[in-house]
Specification:
It comes from Cnephaeus nilssonii. By secondary structure, the chain is α/β, with parallel strands linked by helices. The chain contains 14 helices and 28 strands.
């Protein structure tokens, strides 16, 4: 019996090629060899590759069937939907050839396809704000863990301001809206299997808040071995040996999961028309009444099915996905899709001036229509990982914003930078915990005492990566109202009531320690060497 070895190679971003080295994988019997020789006798490698693809899909199908029979009866239907979704994604993955973007077809979007926020705001608000708010559902993407910041459990449960978590602030924002306008805007959390249990436990604390909270789960897809392209999972469990065998397949999964959960139909039945989707760690992503009014009362009478909030790039954002015109439609292009020869051009702030904030406003009726027609088209992101045991795997993902090209009359709105305030690192956390921002009803706003509207550039070294270590190194958060740039590296601690102004660079060399004394004012200073404050 022959064997087929399949190698997956990364080619210019998300695209893959199958390099097929003769012969048959995970199959037995003479018929398979005959199929192969038949393919080889026909003209060209394309038939050969097609046979291989078919064999591979059949092998994956069999593996998924073995996994499915291990599902408990109460999880069977849900697991079947997940595995069917994975099979469709895997099929598309095998069919794609070459780069997903033809660089020559990329054009700047037409002027009217990306509207300045000021123009949207100038239209004002309707007399009855509650009437438009009651058409809205807020959806937060809550599938991520806090592991990159050294925390266990869902990232949304990390304390970010006055001991309030991301989730606390979100609930406070929506409760404030509901109380102010006497409305019923619900909050929906898209959890993953990683975050669902812990999130549901904490939701009990909001039972007396004026916010209805719903949850649904992202799909759970099997990681696949990078060489064999077969699932590494042997059963449906995700404990023990199977802990790393499963993954949530990116936030592009929201369309299918939201539909499958039944919530989409429930909200449409209640008269809801739009969802506002954003990352739960983006503290700038609050409900904007002007954008909502624009959607509910379109100026040209044509309903807009999809709005993507974009904002101007800075040098820190050059890798962010950008909106382009492609084959007559708005299209989100991510850096992973860009051919290597054009990456520098993609990063150019002069040519591609805006990037996607992942704050999205989407028509519920359009999601239902497109989902039922299987017409939501999102590029596949191939994400390579190495498991703890050293096994190389890949996971197939999609991004929610990539679906913009599937919707009618889509629009970009160039919003102020204040609507993009993500907390990905402790450097970001320092900014939002500082006096640069004031907190009101769950929303952060830049302090009026800050003379510049821009946020300082903060780079904290590896000693600050984990939240626990970061908190231990600050007796209190410094005054940063006049700060432009802060770099900290090495074993550094800050006393109480420190003030940082202009450009401040603090570098403790290996083996040295720097203690910034209480009450210190550092303005345009470089501090290096060894400075320790000892109790007398």
């Amino acid at each position: 019996m022959c064997k087929l070895f399949i190698f997956v190679e990364r080619v210019e971003g998300i695209q893959t090629v199958l390099r097929l080295n003769l012969v048959l994988c995970h199959t037995n019997g003479r018929n398979k060899d005959i199929n192969l020789s038949k393919a080889m006798s026909q003209d060209g490698a394309s038939q050969f590759q097609e046979v291989i693809r078919q064999e591979l899909e059949l092998s994956v199908k069999k593996e998924l069937e073995k996994i499915l029979v291990t599902a408990p009866s109460h999880e069977f239907e849900h697991t079947k939907k997940d595995l069917d979704g994975f099979r469709k994604l895997f099929h598309r993955f095998l069919q794609e050839k070459g780069p997903s973007v033809d660089w020559g077809k990329i054009q700047r979007p037409p002027e009217d396809s990306i509207q300045p926020y000021e123009k949207i705001k100038a239209r004002g608000l309707p007399d009855n704000v509650s009437s438009v708010l009651n058409k809205l559902v807020v959806v937060k993407l809550n599938g991520g863990l806090g592991t990159s910041m050294g925390c266990k459990g869902p990232k949304s449960l990390i304390g970010v301001r006055n001991e309030n978590t991301f989730l606390d602030l979100t609930v406070q924002q929506i409760e404030h809206l509901n109380k102010t306008y006497n409305t019923d805007v619900p909050l929906v959390l898209m959890n993953s299997f990683n975050t669902d249990e812990d999130t549901k436990k904490i939701l009990q604390k909001y039972s007396h808040c004026r916010v209805k909270i719903y949850t649904f789960n992202q799909s759970r897809y099997p990681r696949i071995n990078k060489e064999s392209l077969l699932p590494v999972a042997k059963d449906v469990s995700y404990s023990g040996e199977n802990t790393e065998a499963w993954y949530p397949p990116g936030h592009g999964d929201i369309y299918a999961s939201f539909y499958n959960s039944g919530l989409l139909d429930i909200f449409i039945g209640e008269g809801k028309e739009y969802i506002f989707v954003s990352n739960i760690d983006n503290l700038g992503a609050t409900v904007d009444l002007y954008i909502l009014n624009h959607l509910m009362n379109p100026p040209n009478g044509k309903p807009c099915e999809f709005v993507m909030e974009v904002t101007n790039k800075t040098r820190a954002d050059v890798k962010g996905g950008t909106l382009t015109q492609y084959e007559g439609k708005l299209r989100l292009v991510e850096i992973a899709q860009v051919p290597k020869a054009h990456v520098d051009e993609f990063k150019s702030v002069s040519k591609f001036k805006i990037f996607n904030t992942n704050n999205l406003w989407i028509s519920l009726a359009a999601v239902k229509r497109l989902q039922e027609k299987n017409a939501i088209d999102m590029e596949i992101i191939v994400n390579p990982k190495t498991l703890d045991g050293g096994l190389n795997v890949i996971q197939l993902e999609t991004a929610v914003g990539a679906a913009i090209k599937s919707f009618e009359n889509s629009l970009g709105i160039n919003v102020p930078r204040s609507r993009f305030l993500p907390v990905k690192t402790t450097s970001d956390l320092l900014l939002v915990m500082s006096n640069l921002y004031s907190l009101n009803a769950g929303s952060l706003t830049m302090s009026e005492k800050r003379e510049f509207p821009t946020v300082p550039l903060v780079k904290l070294g590896s000693s600050f990566t984990k939240v626990q270590d970061y908190l231990r190194r600050f007796e209190s958060i410094p005054d940063m109202l006049e700060l432009d740039h802060l770099t900290v590296s090495g074993d550094v601690t800050f006393g109480k009531n420190v003030s940082l102004k202009g450009t401040v660079i603090i570098i403790a060399n290996h083996g040295d320690r720097i203690d910034i004394p209480p009450g210190a004012v550092l303005e345009n200073k470089i501090v290096s060497g060894n400075l320790r404050i000892l109790d007398h």
